[in-house]
């Protein structure tokens, strides 16, 4: 029995005593004439009525307390979110109508709901923050990964000229480590004064324009390479959203290949002009001799004219080579492929190169296959490739040497090889010899050339005819250039009924 | 005795044109196909003047001139150079350092070459 019940019980007892006292007080004088037994009966009845009322009152109080307990207990078990649902809220154990606990229970419900909603709001804010944090974290990780994966070195400084960021490429090129550096001042970490000046000027200048420079830097392997450096101010937004300058960032781009290309282009222009001027010099000299009347007899005049003619042809061949290469590279070449005999083509090439070989006392031998070797080829182009390979072999073979041309059937391919006893190529030269304008340094003085013959041959063999060209060589031991082309069987005239439709297509594709 | 002119070039038709013009003018000429061959002829034949191309196999024009200037017997040999190169060579340097009398660009005029040879040899005669 709790305090509440005790109070209820005490109130009931007080009520009984009060009822009895009141009955005695009221009815006492009236019952003065009655017998004692009657008086006692009335008193008992009144007392019983008072006791019954007290008992009813106590029971009602007790059941109200139990209902409140159940109500609160159910409320505690309820998911607070269900409080917003009227059906669920209505299913709570009810308090008796008119119960004095009703306002309290309602306040408790409202408080619970309010607290629940506050918790919900906090939970949403926390989730949003967590998502933003995760995003920022992964964004930062991604930016770091991108920067460190970037091949271009990047260095950033703050407005105190201290390095605040350098990716792995920059650390490796400029040979410092930001994390372990005691003093992060740019001037102390980077030895290249021009780079330091460029960054600090970009950082402290009023204008935000980019500053660029090109300079040579020595990397960690001791190799010198050209870099184009672009330095620009960077800004960071402050809390008010205004962009405030924070420092400068420099991106270093390796332009070694570009510089090498520029150099090769310049060398190419120089060697093309040299190659053009040489036959032109012949033409002009003999024209002048003729004009001056130096050739007194017909024989001399004819000889001079023949030289002029052959030098004009040479000039034309050079221009053809140049144009063909340019056209093939630009993809605007007309290819006229037909079924041809490789051996016939090779014999023609030997015929063209033979005079040059003879003038250098080089033996040019053709060991061609006795079989018919069919190729689906553009005659002029393939002939030019073969001439380029043969004349190269003659150029880079010393007097008294030997150049051998072979052809054979090799499975599904027809192959021809040009082998010489010339100066040979280093492994590096073997890799680069098919690059446009590339000329083997040590052989430059041995013969004139444009560095176009082999790239053109490669284009013709590989891009136009779907074959392969390769070289095997060792310094001082000669070189062998090998060309493999898809074999084309001798074309049979197709029967008249199969001239149209899929069969014809199949025949053509088999020959390709 | 006719003056001796040595022509050195790896382009046979250039040699033939120059040789033809000089011979008609009464010079005694010999030709060499590259610098190495030219050096051998110089030692054996001792020409009065050398006309050489720059770009040649085995030994180029500048290499040949360096050899000539490095040898007491040939140190004073007058040298004219021909070149098809445009901008790589500086006549001032060739003249100051290697005492090259003239640098003619290809295409060249046989008539002009003859005049240059005449002038060079006449100046030599005055100095002598």
Write a concise keyword list for the protein shown above.
heterodimer; A: 512 residues; alpha+beta; Beta-Lactamase; 4 domains; five-stranded antiparallel sheet; five-stranded mixed sheet; 54% helix; elongated; disordered C terminus; B: 128 residues; alpha/beta; Rossmann fold; five-stranded parallel sheet
Explain what this protein looks like in three dimensions.
The complex is a heterodimer of chains A (512) and B (128). Chain A is of the alpha+beta class. Chain A folds into 4 domains: 3-77; 150-254, PAS domain (Beta-Lactamase); 260-307, no CATH class; 334-496, Histidine kinase-like ATPase, C-terminal domain (Heat Shock Protein 90). Helices cover 54% and strands 17% of the residues of chain A. Chain A has helices at residues 3-30, 36-77, 86-90, 102-149, 168-174, 186-189, 193-204, 256-291, 298-330, 342-359, 379-395, 427-432, 453-464, 502-511; strands at residues 154-158, 163-166, 211-218, 224-237, 243-254, 337-341, 363-367, 374-378, 402-410, 413-420, 468-473, 479-486. In chain A, the strands form 3 sheets. Chain A has a 5-stranded antiparallel beta sheet with strand order 2-1-5-4-3, with helices on both faces. In chain A, strands 7-9-10-12-11 form a 5-stranded mixed beta sheet. In chain A, strands 6-8 form a two-stranded antiparallel sheet. In chain A, strand 3 (211-218) and strand 4 form a beta hairpin. In chain A, helix 1 (3-30) runs antiparallel to helix 2 and helix 9 packs across helix 13 (453-464). The longest helix of chain A is centred in the first third of the chain and has 48 residues, at 102-149. Chain A is elongated and about 190 Å long. Chain A starts with a helix and ends with a helix. The model of chain A is unreliable at 492-512 (pLDDT under 50). Helix content of chain B is 47%, strand content 20%. The radius of gyration of chain B is 13 Å and the shape is globular. Chain B is of the alpha/beta class. Chain B has helices at 12-24, 35-45, 61-70, 91-98, 110-127; strands at 4-8, 28-32, 49-53, 79-83, 100-105. Chain B has a 5-stranded parallel beta sheet. Chain B starts with a strand and ends with a helix. The longest helix of chain B has 18 residues, at 110-127. Chain B has a domain at 1-55: 3-Layer(aba) Sandwich (Rossmann fold). Chain B is built from 5 helices and 5 strands; from the N terminus they run E-H-E-H-E-H-E-H-E-H. The interface between A and B is medium-sized, with 24 and 27 residues.
């Amino acid at each position: 029995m709790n305090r509440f019940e005790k109070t209820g019980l005490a109130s009931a007892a007080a009520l009984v005593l009060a009822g009895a006292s009141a009955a005695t007080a009221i009815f006492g004088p009236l019952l003065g004439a009655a017998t004692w037994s009657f008086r006692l009966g009335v008193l008992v009845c009144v007392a019983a009525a008072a006791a019954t009322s007290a008992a009813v009152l106590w029971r009602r109080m007790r059941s109200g307390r139990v209902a409140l307990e159940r109500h609160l207990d159910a409320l505690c078990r309820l998911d607070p979110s269900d409080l917003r649902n009227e059906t669920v809220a209505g299913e709570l154990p009810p308090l008796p109508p008119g119960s004095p606990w009703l306002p309290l229970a309602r306040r408790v419900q409202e408080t619970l709901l309010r607290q629940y909603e506050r918790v919900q709001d906090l939970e949403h804010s926390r989730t949003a923050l967590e998502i933003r944090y995760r995003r920022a974290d992964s964004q930062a990780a991604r930016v770091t990964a991108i920067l460190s994966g970037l091949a271009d070195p990047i260095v950033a400084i703050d407005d105190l000229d201290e390095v605040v960021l350098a990716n792995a490429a920059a650390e490796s090129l400029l040979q410092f480590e930001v994390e372990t550096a005691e003093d992060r001042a740019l001037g102390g970490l980077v030895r290249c004064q021009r780079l330091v000046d460029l960054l600090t000027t970009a950082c402290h200048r009023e204008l935000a324009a980019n500053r660029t420079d090109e300079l040579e830097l020595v990397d960690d392997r001791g190799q010198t390479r050209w870099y184009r450096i672009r330095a620009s101010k960077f800004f960071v937004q402050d809390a008010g959203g205004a962009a405030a300058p924070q420092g400068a960032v420099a991106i270093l781009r390796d332009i070694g290949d570009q510089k090498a290309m520029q150099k090769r282009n310049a060398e190419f222009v120089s060697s093309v002009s040299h190659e053009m001027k040489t036959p032109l010099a012949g033409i002009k000299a003999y024209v002048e001799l003729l004009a001056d009347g130096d050739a007194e007899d017909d024989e001399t005049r004819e000889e001079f004219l023949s030289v002029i003619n052959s030098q004009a042809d040479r000039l034309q061949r050079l221009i053809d080579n140049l144009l063909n290469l340019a056209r093939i590279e630009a993809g605007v070449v007309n290819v006229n492929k037909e079924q041809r005999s490789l051996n016939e083509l090779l014999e023609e090439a030997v015929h063209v190169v033979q005079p040059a070989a003879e003038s250098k006392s080089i033996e040019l031998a053709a060991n061609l296959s006795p079989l018919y070797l069919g190729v689906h080829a553009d005659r002029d182009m393939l002939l030019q490739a073969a001439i380029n390979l043969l004349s190269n072999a003659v150029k880079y073979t010393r007097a008294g040497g030997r150049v051998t041309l072979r052809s054979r059937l090799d499975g599904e391919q027809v192959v021809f090889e040009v082998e010489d006893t010339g100066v040979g190529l280093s492994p590096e030269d073997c890799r680069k010899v098919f690059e446009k304008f590339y000329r083997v340094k040590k052989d430059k003085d041995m013969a004139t050339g444009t560095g176009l013959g082999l790239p053109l041959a490669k284009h013709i063999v590989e891009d136009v005819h779907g074959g392969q060209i390769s070289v095997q060589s060792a310094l001082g031991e000669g070189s062998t250039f090998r060309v493999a082309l898809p074999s084309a069987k001798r074309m049979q005239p197709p029967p008249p009924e199969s001239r149209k439709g899929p069969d014809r297509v199949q025949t053509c594709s088999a020959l390709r | 005795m006719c003056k001796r002119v040595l022509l050195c070039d790896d382009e046979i038709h250039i040699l033939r044109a120059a040789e033809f013009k000089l011979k008609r003018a009464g010079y005694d000429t010999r030709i060499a196909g590259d610098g190495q061959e030219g050096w051998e002829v110089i030692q054996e034949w001792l020409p009065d003047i050398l006309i050489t191309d720059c770009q040649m196999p085995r030994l180029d024009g500048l290499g040949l001139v360096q050899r000539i200037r490095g040898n007491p017997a040939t140190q004073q040999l007058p040298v004219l150079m021909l070149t098809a190169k445009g901008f790589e060579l500086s006549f001032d340097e060739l003249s100051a350092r290697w005492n090259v009398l003239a640098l003619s660009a290809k295409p060249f005029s046989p008539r002009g070459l003859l005049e240059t040879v005449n002038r060079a040899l006449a100046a030599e005669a005055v100095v002598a």
